[in-house]
Write a structure and sequence with these properties.
By secondary structure, the protein is an alpha/beta fold. About 40% of the residues lie in helices and about 15% in strands. The strands form 2 sheets. The chain has an 8-stranded mixed beta sheet with strand order 3-4-2-1-5-9-10-8, with helices on both faces. Helix 8 packs parallel to helix 9.
Length: about 260
């Protein structure tokens, strides 16, 4: 099956990027080249008249090295401390990179609870719409210093899916350290990549799963499939790919995995 992403029809795009993509291995600093590579893609989309929202993990990972932590801590309070240190570093690097294109960024720290509260939903939707009208690229992250659910579950995958449906985006892109969905662990000999998923229910969840190999994220393939269920049920497609393949994937090349909307 040939994967096809009709970018011409995608005016509003949410791109979620995982911790491992931005930092590499546990204890590493933010990778400026990775952030620049992502920003280059977003800048090209903006130049084509697209609205883009980034959901960015990486705050906890970015805070490890300054706190002299070699690995992501198991203790929740330490994770929140690392996020508090790392969030400023993460935004500073994004701001610096987007300045190359004279693109203004903004920071939104929200929680799953915010999106589940009707009193907060309209405020979030309203500010995002205002930012997009002003040509700003909003950068959203879980407020890890006060919210705990995303730290434990999903590395922002679930948050990105809910945000995508909230703003009525045309496409959700999950950028990870794996180049797509496989029918088994990608390290297993003979594992085959699945380029197109039209019915999520047909996937064998017993052989698909596990977190990334870098040791800095909390997500895995299961949380990405759960995100796909949310957006495809809302009539929105989802693309899963790695950062080096992102430009080609957005142009419709058969790289990564595309989940077709219901």
């Amino acid at each position: 099956m040939k994967m096809s992403v009709d970018l011409a029809k995608c005016q509003k795009i949410v791109i979620k990027v995982g911790s491992s993509t931005l930092t590499g291995s546990a204890g590493a600093n933010l990778d400026p080249k990775a952030i620049d590579q992502l920003v280059d893609v977003v800048a090209n989309l903006k130049a084509a008249g697209k609205d883009v929202i980034i959901v960015s993990s990486g705050a906890i990972a970015a805070g490890l090295a300054p706190l002299q932590l070699k690995n992501r801590p198991l203790d929740l309070a330490l994770q929140q401390a690392a996020a508090s240190v790392g969030q400023g570093l993460l935004m500073a690097r994004y701001t610096e990179s987007f300045n190359r294109f004279k693109i203004t960024t903004s920071q939104l720290l929200i929680t799953i609870d915010d999106i589940n509260r009707s009193t907060h939903v309209e405020n979030i939707r309203g500010v995002l719409q205002s930012l997009l009208k002003l040509g700003v690229v909003p950068i959203v992250n879980e407020n890890d210093t006060v919210g705990t659910e995303e730290i434990r579950y999903g590395d922002n995958d679930g948050l990105a899916a809910l945000l995508t449906t909230l703003v009525g985006a045309d496409l959700l892109v999950l950028v990870t350290d794996i180049d797509g969905l496989y029918d088994a662990d990608p390290k297993t000999p003979g594992a085959k990549q699945i380029n197109l998923v039209s019915k999520i229910a047909t996937l064998d969840m017993a052989t698909i799963g596990g977190a990334g190999g870098a040791g800095v994220g909390s997500g895995g393939m299961v949380t990405k499939i759960q995100a796909a269920k949310v957006v495809t049920a809302a009539g929105i497609g989802m693309l899963l790919t790695k950062l080096p393949d992102l430009p080609a994937a957005l142009n419709g090349s058969q790289v990564g995995t595309f989940f077709t909307p219901n």
